User: Which sequence fits this backbone?
């Protein structure tokens, strides 16, 4: 090999070594890392003490490994700062609880949550999985943003939030109580709630619930409580009780509601509905289509008839 | 070592010691240290504002804290600038108490979180902009923009746009002015023939001014709101003095009214309200009597009656299928 060839190869080898070297276990974009090692042994920065829960203040945090705790009463991450942004980066925060259908029945029970907001608002959680905690998968205060997260197998709610939150593309599957429950004036869009122990999706006054699927849950599929909700373009199928429940002043349109155990649409007399397709369960006695006194805006199909109810 | 080998080694060393402002994928980093040092782009002086004078992709790698009420955090002086806040915060010095009509913030000042004037192609994503006395994100006569997954709290005016923009996943809460203010100036050299902005899947809450206020120099531009919660604002929930509409949105508990569309506008505006729940406001809606249609809304539980508009399909008003 000529000297020059050796030199070129050496340079190429250096570049190749740079390219192939194992990626350092850090975020690299200024974020504070959270991983199992720092959670257990050193603390994960910003004053966090060793051991669970990892305490999060404001700013950006990224997971660089799964977080696993064996105690159902132990919270994994506690948020104490205003506007924390937690990027799970595809990793899982896992507790020891498992939930089995039907029911589901979740054991062991305990008081821990996957991510718990103590008092601060505007928490953001994105891109990962939270499973197996004794209470809620994620419990967040007002003005939260939860997107692209799977919450599953938690002993109580999958996701439990305060008011004014944006919740999009969350999958809440087989949690012990509700899949997603939020206070007033939130936006719940493009979520899936499947096989949870209580209602699939629930929002208080002024909530916008659009484009979701809520199937096979232990009570209602979708609940718009208190009043003034928009419930549009959702699917509610095979839930134990009502398909969709809406209080006064709600607008319920464009939904597909089928095979639920009670009324498809259980509506306040001042709730309005239109453009829905509603089919009662063929196997559940007493299941029916729509409350008698709600305001029919037309274009509904109830059990194969355009006369609705 | 031969000269060529030295040169290669220097080149590799240069790669390894490249400016910390440039991430490996060509993205330019912004952080507190670089803000203090200056030179993020040509002409950027030490301290605030961080001036972005070149097109490109910019990434925050720390939060930026601005202590002066009269300083802006980031000023954009180029077209085609994309800022990823990367989960970090731009924070000014204002503190606020109360909410809605009773919200009060201090100190006053001219500082904004992000400011651009008469540019094109600006995007801001993924973070928090708060406590700036003048405004959070001010895109004055910016011809096209994207703002998504941003939380704007405790600013003066939260977000100003002035062209064709896509706004999504925003949380706009407790600002001292409007939540979103849109002013399109058709006489501007930057302006296109017709501007068309869409706001989707956002929360506009407890601001002292309107949740959304739009106006135009010629009244021909359009602002569309979809699948959004607008509540608890100190004035009207949505006051659109341009073409536009609301669809599939909840407008709840706004102090001076729910929706105004085409009222007090420079010229007649057409628009459509469809599929909204409008409740617990001072009134439900006030619409241009000849050019705004409404259908499939539920307008129930408001203090005063709605007015104007043309009913083009069934609605519920005050719990009844008879609407004005």
Assistant:
């Amino acid at each position: 090999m000529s000297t020059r060839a050796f030199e070129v190869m050496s340079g190429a080898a250096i570049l190749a070594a740079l390219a192939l070297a194992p990626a350092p276990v850090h975020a690299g974009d200024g974020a504070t890392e959270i991983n199992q090692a720092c959670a257990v042994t050193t603390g994960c920065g910003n004053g966090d003490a060793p051991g669970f829960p990892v305490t999060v203040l404001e700013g950006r945090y990224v997971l660089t490994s799964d977080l696993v705790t064996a105690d159902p009463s132990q919270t994994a991450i506690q948020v104490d700062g205003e506007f924390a942004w937690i990027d799970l980066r595809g990793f899982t925060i896992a507790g020891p609880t498992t939930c089995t259908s039907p029911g589901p029945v979740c054991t062991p029970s305990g008081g821990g949550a996957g991510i718990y907001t103590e008092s601060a608002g505007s928490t953001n959680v994105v891109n990962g999985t939270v499973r197996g905690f004794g209470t809620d998968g994620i419990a967040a205060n007002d003005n939260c943003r939860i997107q692209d997260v799977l919450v599953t197998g938690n002993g109580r709610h999958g996701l439990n939030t305060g008011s004014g939150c944006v919740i999009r593309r969350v999958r809440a599957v087989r949690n012990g109580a509700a899949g997603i429950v939020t206070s007033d004036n939130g936006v719940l869009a493009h979520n899936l709630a499947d096989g949870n122990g209580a209602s699939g999706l629930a929002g208080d006054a002024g909530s916008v619930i659009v484009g979701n699927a809520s199937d096979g849950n232990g009570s209602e599929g979708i609940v718009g409580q208190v009043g003034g909700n928009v419930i549009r373009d959702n699917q509610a199928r095979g839930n134990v009780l009502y398909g969709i429940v809406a209080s006064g002043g709600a607008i319920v349109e464009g939904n597909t509601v089928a095979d639920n155990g009670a009324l498809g649409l259980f509506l306040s007399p001042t709730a309005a509905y239109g453009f829905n397709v509603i089919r009662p369960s063929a196997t559940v006695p007493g299941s029916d289509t729509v409350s008698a006194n709600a305001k029919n805006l037309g274009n509904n199909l109830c059990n194969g008839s355009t006369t609705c109810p | 070592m031969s000269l060529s080998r030295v040169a290669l080694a220097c080149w590799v060393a240069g790669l390894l010691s490249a400016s910390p402002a440039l991430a490996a994928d060509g993205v330019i980093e912004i952080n507190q240290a670089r803000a203090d040092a200056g030179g993020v782009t040509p002409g950027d002086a030490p301290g605030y504002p961080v001036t972005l004078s070149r097109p490109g992709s910019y990434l925050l790698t720390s939060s930026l804290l601005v202590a002066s009420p009269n300083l802006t955090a980031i000023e954009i002086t180029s077209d085609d600038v994309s800022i990823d806040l990367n989960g970090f915060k731009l924070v000014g010095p204002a503190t606020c108490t109360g909410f809605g009509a009773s919200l009060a913030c201090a100190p006053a000042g001219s500082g904004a979180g992000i400011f651009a004037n008469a540019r094109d192609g600006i995007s801001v994503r993924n973070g928090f902009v708060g406590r700036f006395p003048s405004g959070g994100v001010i895109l004055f006569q910016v011809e096209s923009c994207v703002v998504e997954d941003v939380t704007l709290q405790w600013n003066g005016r939260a977000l100003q746009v002035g062209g064709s923009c896509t706004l999504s996943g925003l949380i706009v809460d407790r600002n001292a002015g409007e939540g979103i203010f849109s002013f399109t100036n058709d006489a501007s050299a930057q302006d296109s023939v017709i501007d068309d902005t869409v706001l989707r899947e956002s929360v506009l809450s407890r601001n002292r001014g309107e949740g959304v206020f739009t106006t135009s120099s010629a009244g021909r531009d359009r602002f569309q709101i979809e699948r959004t919660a607008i509540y608890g604002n100190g004035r009207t929930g949505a006051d659109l003095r341009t073409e536009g509409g609301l669809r599939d949105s909840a407008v709840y508990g706004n102090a001076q009214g729910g929706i105004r569309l085409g009222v007090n506008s420079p010229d007649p505006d057409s628009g459509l309200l469809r599929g909204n729940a409008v409740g617990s406001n001072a009134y439900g809606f006030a619409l241009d009597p000849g050019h705004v249609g409404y259908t499939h809304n539920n307008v129930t539980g408001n203090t005063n009656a709605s007015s104007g508009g043309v009913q083009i399909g069934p609605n519920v008003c005050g719990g009844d299928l008879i609407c004005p």
User: Anything to note?
Assistant: The first helix of chain A runs from residue 3 to 20. The longest strand of chain A covers residues 124-131.
